[in-house]
Design brief:
The protein has 18 helices and two strands. It is an all-alpha fold. It is elongated and about 80 Å long.
């Protein structure tokens, strides 16, 4: 697809746009920087309160950051042990029955220093030097939790009103839930600013992920804070082991999923290697389909099915004696499209992928009103890539979209076509800005 150029753009302006951070990202980073400066200044001026406790939690957060080595890219919480330790320190009111007084700014300073210490080995190896979103979110969310808890506890209000009973534990859980919600909003804002995807679906995706590793982080943070309040710092290693084991198990599962996806992508390339489809067709359809799926609010598991089906949607062409010209199945008669789709579904069922993936592939040629949403998306995006590739001129993408719009009465769902148009429009504007 040929991206439009910006009229009157200059090389200098293109260079500036390429390295300019979105305003939302700058605002979030600026807030984290201001909080960091205030925290470090306070500690340098007044010193550390209860340094033994600060050191113990700092070591816990640093160890948690060290366990990020080898974490899969894109993982929502790459250091759950560090996150749980940071939240526990923010919500710590007592140590073995003795009140603590570390306050909000010291909490942020200790968590930040420990996080940086744990990240030193990765930075020296050139890993994650510019991946600032996670530490920025951690500073802001830990600061939020500490602001909600520390002033009330240090003033004696919580001890007076709730004591040390179930009400106190329930309050910690509530504060952790609010902190997790704050982190989800920040994460969605940052992704929205960088990708221009709609904020609503991104936030829903973040919220759907909270019951998984997020719930383990929050629960461990609450348990650590309560355990240290009763048993002292010896409770730290006892309550951290389960989360560490969960993290290791989750990492192995993520590695298996990554290998699984790579295997599917390699299988999808068989049609390109055999000359049945144009180079990069399956990858382009998968990327555009996932972008449209996010635009329409599909959940994480639904996006996974959509991606696998988009990668393998042309696998049925391997059963043909004569290849379709340029692999453009969207230009074939409907009966032939249906036959290829059924052949592809039969092949996909032999690969061991979820049955839903095979269903999406099999139903590519059905009327869109009878298709599941994933099949509607793959069908429209596949047709767009076939039609755009048919015309080598700069008007090819626009002509392809117009032909899709003309087919919305029977072949393509109008909402899917318009979502595809919005995704392509955002991509074209980004390409124009970066030259």
């Amino acid at each position: 697809m040929t991206a439009p150029t910006t009229v009157g753009a200059t090389p200098g302006r293109d260079h500036d746009h390429r390295h300019r951070l979105p305003g939302t990202v700058l605002a979030v980073y600026g807030g984290a920087a201001a909080l960091t400066a205030a925290a470090l200044g306070s500690v340098l001026r007044d010193g550390l309160a209860e340094p033994r406790i600060a050191l113990a939690f700092g070591v816990l957060v640093a160890v948690g950051e060290l366990t990020r080595w080898g974490a899969p890219s894109g993982q929502r919480e790459p250091a759950p042990l560090a996150a749980a330790g940071a939240l526990a320190y923010a919500l710590l009111g007592e140590n073995a029955g003795q009140a603590t007084h570390h306050g909000v700014l010291q909490t942020v300073a200790v968590v930040l220093a420990a996080g940086l210490a744990g990240a030193v080995p990765r930075v020296t190896r050139g890993e994650g030097l510019f991946a600032l979103d996670h530490p920025v979110r951690r500073v802001l969310t830990v600061g939020f939790a500490a602001v909600c808890f520390q002033p009330l506890y240090n003033a004696g209000e919580l001890r007076h009103q709730l004591g040390a009973g179930p009400g106190y534990a329930l309050l910690l859980v509530l504060l952790l839930a609010l902190t997790a919600l704050c982190d989800a909003v920040l994460a969605a804002l940052l992704v929205r600013a960088r990708t221009r995807h709609p904020f609503g679906p991104l936030l829903r995706d973040e919220l759907r992920a909270l019951p998984h590793i997020g719930s383990a982080v929050c629960a461990t943070g609450a348990v650590i804070a309560l355990g240290v309040a009763v048993a002292g710092l010896w409770a730290l290693p006892v309550f951290c082991v389960p989360l560490l084991l969960t993290q290791l198990s989750y990492r192995r599962y993520a590695a298996v999923r990554t290998t699984y996806r790579q295997t599917i992508a390699s299988l999808a390339r068989a049609t390109e290697i055999a000359g049945y489809t144009r180079p990069g067709h399956a990858r382009r359809v998968a990327e555009l389909s996932c972008a449209v799926g996010r635009e329409l609010g599909l959940s994480g598991p639904e996006l996974t099915v959509l991606e696998y089906a988009a990668l393998m949607h042309d696998i049925g062409q391997l059963s043909l004696v004569d290849p379709v010209p340029e692999g453009a199945t969207a230009l074939l008669p409907m009966a032939e499209q249906r036959r290829i789709a059924l052949l592809g579904g039969a092949v996909v069922r032999q690969t061991g992928v979820p049955a839903a993936v095979a269903t999406v592939v099999e139903r590519q040629a059905d009327p869109y009103r009878e298709q599941p949403m994933s099949a509607r998306i793959v069908r429209a995006v596949n047709a767009y890539d076939d039609l755009a590739g048919e015309c080598a001129s700069a008007s090819g993408p626009l002509s392809a979209l117009e032909r899709l719009r003309l087919g919305t009465a029977y072949d393509y769902q109008p909402e899917v076509v318009e979502s595809l148009a919005r995704v392509l429009s955002r991509g074209s504007r980004a390409a124009g800005r970066t030259g």
